[in-house]
User: Fold this.
Amino acid sequence: MIKINSLSIPLKYNENTVKTAAAKAIGKSADGITKIIILKKSIDARKKNNIHYVMTVAAEVKNENAILKKCKNTEKYISYSPISVPKIRLSTRPVVVGFGPAGIFAALILAEAGARPIVLERGEDVDTRKKKTDLFWQSGILDEECNVQFGEGGAGAFSDGKLNTGTHSPLIRQVLKELADCGAPSEILYQAKPHIGTDKLLVTVKNIREKIKALGGEVLFGAKLCDFESKSGRLVSCTYVKKGEKYDVETNNLILATGHSARDIFRTLLNKGIEVEQKAFSVGMRIEHLQSELNRSMYGENAPIELLPPADYRLAVHLENGRGVYTFCMCPGGKVVASASENETIVTNGMSYYSRSGENANSAVLVGITPEDFGSSFPLAGAELQIEIEKAAFAKAGGKYFAPCTTVGKLLGEISDFEIGKVKPTYLPGTAYVDPREYLPEYAVESIKQALPMFATKIACFGDREAVLTGPETRSSSPVRITRGESLESVSLKGMYPCGEGAGYAGGIISSAVDGIRCAMAILEKGL
Assistant:
């Protein structure tokens, strides 16, 4: 088969439409193409009077070599081939701590190898987790061990399930294929900006868990890592607590995929002499617009909205003060959700379902901060800054897990009074007006104020005074990095593999899953 790039396809299309476009691109008739596969699909909305899809396809045709020589927009199609997982029985069962994307894919690879991994997840299974999360959103009753941050699927399970990544790895295709095989929509295999949606992601995660168990793995929920032991610089065991009882597990290999919110684990590591570094991260607020107005901003007044997906965006500016401000985790047709994992703190995140049919669009507006902003060389100073912001937000909004909010017009001083207009906050249990300076660092607030008008020059609805800003967003990435070497093991302890976003080596569902696979393969290659 050959790969044909950059086909212009109308918004309303079928297989014959794609075949005809592909045939035209290579100077053939449509009946000369016996098979076609869509490899990539994206929207081109640069010209509002000519919005269309751009596709890359694989086509089965005769005389492939002649076409490849003649047509510049073609290349040889190389089909996907999964990595070869060696069958191996390790001297002890490997332990995976955390069952987010990194832990899930690490455990899956180890299970496929026959290594019978033991997964320790401090939170609960997705069904129990959803009930507890819904209870928190409705009533403000928080379970510190099972919430948006902790539980099966990790923090990404209660998001938009976005699968786009800035990283490049041959393992990305393997992750997408596994997700699709276990219940995710098949179009994630070719969408330029693939997403699953929280509703479908929860089902997919459950199916992967059952696959791990069928392969001999064990998944323990409500099981929290609390200690580990070493001998001669190598891990020999770990201890977890479940329902108040402690259990020891003999193991030579532990993949630490706890996520970016496991601050107690970071403290345990420090106390046990494991090297942990400060790392840059970001803070800010969530901005909400009407999805209908975003659609008009991105597609134009006369666009056939019924044929188009809900519009999304990604924006970034570099300010004269040296700060970068950018949008993150954009959720079309979604809502802002309460995401705290510790009592009397406020944390926000964005979430949407597969349909993306909500009235509002939301995205984080984040300001990059560096260790120079922490005011301390203590490895957990970044985490302490997060806590300070989250506690201030809780107090200033009056408790009850209400989140502080304002409007763009009020923040920019364009209106004197705070008033909710056409854009209604989606955050539950509720919101209260608070000046962001009451909980965010001054430099963060000023940077956002400078960035919003700059964003408005690119997307018109960013100039809407009634757009709502709800904060704080503090958990976009980990504030630490658990230092590891070329073997992917901790530089302080052989057999411990810091992994994924929480360890500072990934930045989303896909990159975390890829890192999980890499750490699992590193264990199998050593074979200890």
Q: What stands out?
A: The first strand starts at residue 2 and ends at 9. The chain has twelve helices and 23 strands.
